[in-house]
Amino acid sequence: MNATRILRQVAAAPGQHRTPLIKFLGKRSTPESMDHAPHAHPASPTHDLPDSFASYRQKAQQHGPLNHRSQFSTSGGAIGGQPGSSLGPIEPPQGQYFDRDDLPTRFRRTIWTQAEIDAIDSGGASMFA
């Protein structure tokens, strides 16, 4: 509070003028005309807009197809609508794994040594003690 009061007194002193260090370019002005027509993004792969939102939605995907009709929608819901055996095998496809422990040994997680655990617990200080 006192610093602000002192600065105000210095600024109000006669014969001294404070010059700001920032330089302004001038008054803002808006362009005379702007094109508000929709256009495709410059990085889009097709460089054209979809005909309608419905046609876009037919091709769009977010964690899978958006227009996909599930087999569960006609059978009374996703839970209990069909027996589990009819849903197919639960084995992963060739080259895919459900768990890291199913991977070859070179891709598995390494086991932490007691020295590494102590180094983390001490914030690294145990490495120099």
Summarize the structure.
The chain has 129 residues and is an all-alpha fold. The protein has helices at 2-12, 53-59, 114-121.
Shape: flat
Question: What's the helix count?
Answer: 3
Order of helix and strand elements from N to C terminus: HHH
Structure class: mainly alpha
First-last Cα distance: 49 Å
Secondary structure: helix percent: 10-25%
Main sheet characteristics: none
Care to count the β-strands?
Answer: 0
Uncertain segments are: none
Rounded to the nearest angstrom, the radius of gyration is 34 Å
Give the mean pLDDT. Answer: 79
Fraction of residues in β-strands: under 5%
What does this structure look like?
This protein is an all-alpha fold and 129 residues long. It has helices at residues 2-12, 53-59, 114-121. The protein is flat and about 90 Å long. The two termini are 49 Å apart.
Describe the secondary structure blueprint for this structure.
Blueprint: H1 2-12, H2 53-59, H3 114-121
What are its keywords?
129 residues, mainly alpha, 3 helices, flat
